[in-house]
Amino acid sequence: MSNRPRIFSGMQPTGSGELHLGNYLGALRNWVELVDQQKYEALFAVVDSHATTVEYDPKQMPHRIFGTALSYLAAGLDPERCSVFIQSDVPEHMELAWYLGTVTAMGDLQRMTQFKEKSDQYKQNVNSGLFTYPVLMAADILVYKATVVPVGDDQVQHLELSREIARRFNARYGQVFPEPKPLLTKTPRIMGIDGKAKMSKSRGNSIDLFDDAKTVEKKLKGAFTDPAKLRLGDAGHPEICNVFTMHTALTDAALVADIDRDCRSGALGCGDCKKRLVQSLNTALDPMRERAAALRAEPARVLDVLRDGAARAREIAQATLVEVRDAMGMRAEAPPR
Ligand code: AMP
Ligand code: TRP
Q: 12: Cβ below 6 Å to ligand 2?
């Protein structure tokens, strides 16, 4: 077993399962870089069990899971250097979640922003799984004793709770878990093209990773920019513009500096700025589109990766659970006579 520090992260298979630009620029891109650095042992799950907290069609779920796994690989995760697997293939996540639930305060769970938002959004189905979602997330991470968790901005609060849960467990049962820290990209929060909320599939405001060039261009044309730049020629404010944020993530630094200057002076209009972003996007997305097409044509490759990934993940997770059960005294032993 490798003794490099571990990283873990995961994404829910929502919509078609395939990911959007927010997922990529906020998290997935970091995963690829971290794996390529080879400093960590890296594990990435498609967190299907988390996705059952809202109503869904069981017939579609396998396609969604496939789509998310395919997105990971198409984005450039090298399965030779990391483990990619399905959360529900490693039942130890569930077992650990139960134990961690017993050291998690109700009050802490009630404070979670994502819980408040989702229980608002799905009023007819505020189930206890939605409530304990962050406990399962803590288990996902701690079962691998991962210390680095590359995620977007919206998961930072959940990570704080994961650390608190690790501390409470260790205080009660002895030192078992390290405290995991979030790792953010320089664009940890991408807004949707409507400019109203963060980019997400369910809000229909996303640019998807495998959108073709035409679709990307069309979507960007309608994208919301700097709200203060009403007329062509007015001074712009790139620091509050989502299109500019995407430039900082995707466009060459020298050109970003030009865009910043020309936006502020009014020399560069939003239409032209968007055209440049289309170019940067196509440069970034073309290789992913190609890899996605190749994987769709050969789905067995994705399934093989998931099978091997789960085997490796299980090995680590089982060892952790042996330690956890031992620390918690979950075994029979005759009392001394
Ligand atoms: P989800 O699709 O909610 O499972 O999110 C998967 C990962 O993508 C998490 O690390 C999120 O923080 C990240 N993410 C999702 N939406 C965005 C966004 N609009 N901007 C930046 N990161 C995001
Ligand atoms: N809650 C995360 C999200 O909605 C997904 C997730 C589940 C996750 N378990 C995780 C992320 C463990 C990082 C680590 O985006």
A: yes
Is the model's pLDDT at 229 over the cut of 90?
no
Contacts of 12 (CB under 8 A, 6+ apart): 46, 47, 48, 50, 51, 68
pLDDT of residue 231: 58
**How confident is the model at residue 310, as a pLDDT?**
98
How far apart are the CA of 222 and the centre of ligand 2, in A? Answer: 30
Domain boundaries defined on the chain: 6-190+299-328, 213-292
Q: Which residues contact 82 (CB under 8 A, 6 or more apart)?
A: 31, 35, 41, 42, 43, 44
pLDDT score of 334: 97
Question: Could you say which of 3.90.180.10, 3.40.630.30, 3.20.20.80, 3.40.50.620 is the CATH number of the domain covering 6-190+299-328?
Answer: 3.40.50.620
Q: What pLDDT, in 10s, does the model give residues 136-186?
A: 999 999 999 999 999 999 999 999 999 999 999 999 999 999 999 999 999
pTM to 2 decimals? Answer: 0.96
Separation of CA 305 and ligand 1 centre (Å) = 23
DSSP state of 273: H
The residues annotated with a catalytic role in the active site are: 118, 198, 201
Task: Decide if 273 contacts 263 (C-beta within 8 A).
Answer: yes
Cβ–ligand 1 distance for 118 under 6 Å, the answer no
What is the per-residue pLDDT for 235?
81
Q: What span, in angstroms and rounded, lies between the C-alpha atoms of 10 and 134?
A: 13
CB atoms within 10 A of CB 227: 10
Ligand 1 close to Cβ of residue 104 (< 6 A) = no
Closest CA to 22 of 208, 149, 221, 202: 208
Residues 191 and 13: beta-carbon distance below 8 Å: no
CATH of domain 213-292: 1.10.240.10
User: What distance in Å separates the CA atoms of residue 85 and residue 317, rounded to the nearest whole number?
Assistant: 13
266: left (phi over 0), alpha (psi -120 to 50) or beta: left
Ligand of minimum distance to the alpha carbon of 141: 2
The alpha carbon of 26 and the centre of ligand 1 are apart by a number of angstroms equal to 6
